Amino acid sequence: MQMGYDGCYSVPSNFSENIHYYYQFLYLFPATCLNYRILWTIWVSHRQFYSTQSFYNLYSIDCLASILAMSFEILFTRLFLYFPQFCGVLSGIVGNSPIFMRIYYCSISYFKAIKPVVHIFVAINRMSCVMFPVTYSQNWSNKMCIMVFIIFAAPFLVIWNTLISRNYLGYLNGGFVITYEREVKWASLSLMQFTLVILTVLITMITTFITFHKLRNMKKRIKASERSLCIAAGLISMLFLFEAVTESLFAFFKDAPWLIDIMVYIMWSTWDFLIVGSPLVLLFVSSQFRYHVLGMKIGRTQRVSSIQNPPPSHHTSHHHLTVSRNQDKLAQSKRPFYYWFRGISNFEILIFQIFFKIRRRDFLNPKRLDELFRKIRISIEF
């Protein structure tokens, strides 16, 4: 592998590089759709149900950051790197657009910095849920605006040097990447991101330990639901730990010759695991949330948090009726964006239903097939 700064150079096979983009697109695009579907569920289709739950308000920020980050990766980062046949044209356009390079690089760095910050607040949220079950909901609701401001402002403490530094192109394996020359030499972006991710892992480990300790004195039904979210937080922390390992390589061994040889393999692997794996973990540990997002039930429906969710009442019993009426009002208004989003959502649900039916080995059941074809027909007609 070669890396230079003088211009594009040829590689033995363009297709061998293109194939990297194709297989990464196969998991990045569905992951983008899944994060969009989760965001649609929290903000639109089940807004009244989730708007009062601080955990999902925080997690929706993570979904929004993931959607924007993966869109940038698909449209720009991977396209620039894995299509050598377009390197000359694209590098000429991008290299002569310093404003675009500045916006692109700062945005990508911001998305990578905001996800650990969100996860810190999510971990503290779960701990406070079991430590202060009586006042938890009210305290987080009253301070949510302040916390959201901190979440959006904190990443600038990590990326501030990229805002004032010059950007340039680095040519790698037939393609190119956008990088930067540090204006303040000691303020390495990789080192700051590594510090932030390590801090996230440590805080998550401490809060998860406290949460498990407090769960021992709680009721069995509450303990089961909270344990699931603790497991999810632990798994996501492992993903952050892998990201920390990658960031440490760039922070401490950036000029090492051997790092260039493995850069193309590790540059985005751990980042992809993080943004793709995070929503999957939450969906698999929460039956209720999975039902709201994908429209399917697998096993017993279990609340995400018995503490967080209020007991059944007149208001909650009419939740689905209220949501249906709200959707009818939107439909009657004939807003174009509503039909576009709703159509994509129906298509995504069908894809995930097919996947889980195959997984449960009842896909070839004639009744299941009839039901599936009926849904496909309705989706197309919609």
TrEMBL record:
Keywords noted in UniProt = Membrane, Transmembrane, Transmembrane helix
Q: A Gene Ontology molecular-function term? A: transmembrane signaling receptor activity
Task: Note down the stretches annotated as region Disordered.
Answer: 305-328
User: What InterPro entries would the database entry show?
Assistant: 7TM_GPCR_serpentine_rcpt_Srg, Nematode_SR-like
Domain of life per record: Eukaryota
Q: What is its main location?
A: membrane
Please provide the Gene Ontology terms (biological process) for this protein: sensory perception of chemical stimulus
Which topology term describes how it sits in the membrane?
Multi-pass membrane protein
| Assigned GO CC terms | membrane
- Any transmembrane segments, and where? 21-43, 55-76, 82-105, 144-163, 191-212, 224-242, 262-285
Q: Where in or outside the cell? A: Membrane
Which residues does UniProt assign to the signal peptide? Answer: none
**Record-stated family:** Belongs to the nematode receptor-like protein srg family.
In its UniProt entry, what is this protein called?
Serpentine receptor class gamma
Origin species: Caenorhabditis briggsae
Species classification: Eukaryota, Metazoa, Ecdysozoa, Nematoda, Chromadorea
Protein's gene: srg-3
